[in-house]
Amino acid sequence: MQPAVDAVQADERAMGGQHPNAPHAYSEFSRVLDPSIYEALPDDWLVGITDVVGSTSAIKSGRYEDVNYAGASVIAAVGNAWGDFDFPFVFRGDGAAFALPPQGIMTATSALRQVVAFAKTNLNLALRAGLLSVGEIRANGCDVRVARYAASEDATYAMFAGGGLKWAERQIKNGRYLVKPGSYTTEPDLTGLSCDWEPFPSQRGEILSLLVEPSEGRSPEAFAALAKCVLSVLDAGTRQAHPLSRDTAITKDRARSVNLETWLAVASNSDFRKYDDGLRLTLDCTREQIEAVEAILGAAKARGEVNFGLHRQSHALMTCFVPSGKPDSHLHFLDGMGGGYAKAAEMMEANELAMVSVR
């Protein structure tokens, strides 16, 4: 999360200072679609993944904020325990993924156990957690590669490619690599994690949650070309379909006033566009844009090139993290309020099952 400049080599402690060739940070999102900019994590690095079991049901009952808070909790817990946040991670709505060097195994294991217990005790949610090595992922034919996207001068997010996170998530959902609960677990340190804002209504039509992944065996270059085509539709108009208004937002307590400069910094540090083994987007779009994108992706799916899931809703939701000692490096994780990424993933999984049954 260091200040980042497009195509300038990060010479600070990128990704904890453990990666021998820390990747550049790119300020143009289209650059992270280029597979050649991603760098492989070492075999001995660790990958941790969490997700809320039954998140769709919890969201239907109006518990979307709890689901997002549980999803982001492992990022806060790992970073606070590790001592900094210069490691790769991605927020996925009802969960998250991260990577740490091998000496972080105790930190990762402890943090995962803590957030699982916290979600159960404090939020009444079942959080599933798993941990495995990059080498194990590679031994099964996938990879974990990382690039860095500078959302602003103060906030840098990791992008993941190689299919490794998707493979690992599938294994963890099938009961492999699970982190077993400890006999005694302390509370996770979630300092800096909050949900202080009222939901953000769409200004253009609908909030779109979109997941797009390449089909197995498709070239990264071909997927990048399709992704750029999708983005060209969604980027048309003002602010690249950013879901947060330029106007100041409303805090939940409605007692705090937020000046425009502060709010613009918050908005610019948000993660509304990500690459996580595919596109992961939360956008404010016109209905015409959504229909155009759905047509493009439907045709690509029929050709066997991609799988995708999308969900439309009226509002976006933001979960915030402000690292202690680094107030300028605040991060803001976005999802759709009406199901968001969880509903889009549900559609994607249904598509996968349908394709398997056809075969």
Descriptive keywords:
33% helix, 359 residues, single chain, alpha+beta, four-stranded antiparallel β-sheet, globular
Topology of helices and strands:
Elements: E1 25-26, E2 39-40, E3 46-53, H1 55-60, H2 64-82, E4 89-91, E5 95-100, H3 105-123, E6 126-133, H4 134-139, E7 145-150, E8 156-161, H5 164-173, E9 193-194, E10 200-201, E11 206-214, H6 220-234, H7 260-268, E12 273-275, E13 279-285, H8 287-302, E14 306-313, E15 315-321, E16 331-336, H9 340-358
Parallel strand pairs: 1-7
Antiparallel strand pairs: 2-7, 3-5, 3-6, 4-5, 7-8, 9-15, 10-15, 11-13, 11-14, 12-13, 15-16
Helix pairs in contact: 2-3, 6-8
Which sequence of SSEs, written as H and E, runs from N to C?
A: EEEHHEEHEHEEHEEEHHEEHEEEH
Biggest β-sheet description: 4 strands, mixed
What structural category characterises the helix and strand content?
alpha+beta
- The averaged pLDDT comes out at 90
Count, helices:
9
Give the helix level as a range of percent.
Answer: 25-40%
Low-pLDDT residue spans: 1-21
Number of strand segments: 16
Measured between the Cα atoms of the first and last residue, the distance is: 44 Å
Query: What is the domain total for the residues?
Result: 1
